[in-house]
Design a protein that fits this description.
The protein is mainly β. The protein has three helices and 19 strands. A hairpin with a 5-residue loop joins strand 16 and strand 17. It is globular. The termini are far apart. About 30% of the residues are buried.
């Protein structure tokens, strides 16, 4: 028969082991940026160098938003290279990566002077401006305001982040979110509501006349689902941006074509073609990789997802599509 002393000793010996086995383990907190980066790395065969810069910046912005007040001034950022010149002395076109539009690189415009809810504040940065056609980015915190004065330009923007609503003068509401293209025609009146902080990249055509017909000028929203392959048609022989892409298969959809402004989505399979006289255009890369080469000096720019490009009227050169590419565009005639 086992003595009580032996039993007591055995229990004492195993007690720490039982406690360790069933006690909760200490979990090390990790910021959302690290979690997101780890997830993206897990999808790659080459860990440690796989997070695309634009996605990492997006994840960084989420972590910053969790730690900062709802409306916070941008933190100081390291210098970012200026947008490449559009003058003929340079490359003939303007190209910037998404980092150029990162929140930390935007200039604060302060609180909006008039609003009826929230405390909307603006941040922005310009990309290029030829006097009629210009482009840039805009960030705004939550709030709403009336827009009773007719818009002086036609604006087109691609939603990077956030949710909002644009109302027409008769109260019709147009909701939009990430991945959507929004068109505000010249002369539009109505209302703005920023429901969650908005970050957009935009292009503006300051054409002379109001081109919309009818008593009410309406906003148009085209959703990301409208950019799917089944919504596009083969335009290789009559390309809206480059005229003719030859043997390179391209497809597109022009979902707004009023007066001197065209808006749509363009895709292409890999291949190369020459552009003799391109239209004045802005585009934002969604997928793929392509190179644009200026025929005047041979300078070439690599364009990937997140990049924004402006090309002047009559631009000539070469387009080399390396990977299947998709981009949204605006043409200013």
């Amino acid at each position: 028969m086992v003595s009580s002393a032996v039993t007591t000793a055995a229990i004492a010996a195993i007690t720490p082991l039982v406690a360790t086995a069933f006690s909760p383990q200490v979990q090390v907190a990790r910021p959302s940026t690290t979690l997101g980066a780890s997830y993206l790395e897990s999808l790659s065969e080459t860990p440690g160098n796989v997070v695309p810069t634009q996605y990492k910046n997006y994840l960084d912005s989420l972590a910053s938003a969790q730690a900062a007040p709802a409306v916070a001034a941008p933190a100081a950022a390291a210098p970012v290279a200026a947008a490449e010149s559009t003058s003929s002395e340079s490359t003939g076109f303007c190209h910037v990566p998404f980092e150029y539009f990162h929140f930390d690189n935007l200039a604060s415009k302060g609180p909006r002077p008039v609003c009826d809810w929230g405390t909307p504040q603006d941040w922005s940065r310009k990309l290029a401006d030829d006097g009629v056609f210009r482009a840039g980015t805009w960030y705004c915190s939550e709030g709403g305001w009336e827009s009773p004065n007719g818009k002086g330009v036609t604006e087109v923007f691609y939603m990077v982040e956030g949710h909002g609503m644009l109302g027409d003068s008769d109260g019709t509401k147009h909701y939009f979110g990430p991945g959507d293209m929004v068109i505000i025609p010249k002369g539009h009146t109505g209302r703005w509501d920023v429901n969650t902080p908005i970050h957009k990249v935009w292009a503006v055509n300051a054409h002379e006349n109001v081109e919309e017909s009818g008593p009410i000028i309406r906003v148009q929203v085209d959703h990301y689902k409208d950019f799917s392959p089944e919504c596009l048609t083969d335009t290789s022989a009559n390309d809206p941006l480059y005229g003719n892409t030859g043997s390179v298969a391209s497809a597109s959809s022009t979902f707004y074509d009023v007066g001197p402004t065209k808006v749509g989505v363009w895709t292409s399979e890999p291949g190369s073609f020459e552009v003799a006289s391109g239209v004045r255009q802005w585009f934002h890369m969604l997928e793929g990789t392509m190179f644009i080469t200026d025929s005047s000096d041979g300078t070439s720019k690599r364009c990937v997802a997140g990049d924004t490009v402006m090309l002047p009227a009559g631009w000539s050169g070469y387009v080399d599509v390396v990977e299947p590419t998709k981009k949204v565009f605006t043409v200013a005639l």
